[in-house]
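Morning, I've got a small favour to ask if you have a moment. The fold is given in discrete form, as structure tokens running alongside the sequence. I'd be grateful if you could look everything over and explain what you see. No rush at all, and the record is pasted right below.
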Amino acid sequence: MQRAGRLLDSLDARLAASGGTRATAPEILDACIVLLGADGGYLTVAAPGDVHAVVHASSATAEELADLEICYGEGPARASFEDSAARTVTLGEASGRWPVYVSAAESLGAARLSAFPLRSPDRVLGVLVLYVESDHPLSVPDEVAQVLVDHAALTLVDTCDVPELIRDDEWADQAIVHRATGMVAAQLGVSPQSAVSVLRARGFVRGERLVEVARDVVERRLTLNP
């Protein structure tokens, strides 16, 4: 485990060099991306009610990958969270398990995704997902990377207001919008981005906030037809 020990030392050194008194979620994610040789990634936190909120995404591609998984309710991050185990998938080989997600993720340029549960001593906080744009592995095996991510999870607990983030109603609103986006995208046969535009337009006409329209869709009080 010498390699894992060196990774932990490197993570601590990077966070200390940031100059702040507390490490932030973006700093932790960005350090993991560099140390593990990924092209980008995102970090989610789980909240009550099966809500998975994106805390930070390193790029527009990472943000869209996170949105896809939340919208469609399938993908490696959700699977990793549910069984508290790391998993790496080559998208071209995973279409049988997650057909909708894989097709959309490949269109964004991702070739391989690695999902690692953020494990604290008493629960799984969320998931850290890394992607590469060519089919090459991370710089270390998954079991070594998981040691680093477990250390990152403890750092989050020690330095970030994770409980406050989880209780914030904003996360619940975000999850409702994402779920409604996936439903509308399926109903109309359009992209998630177009589905959000449809929801926003309906809210403008009705004089309602986006989350209010989304809640009507999720609770099946509103169906949008082609």
Remarks:
- The chain is about 55% helix and 15% strand.
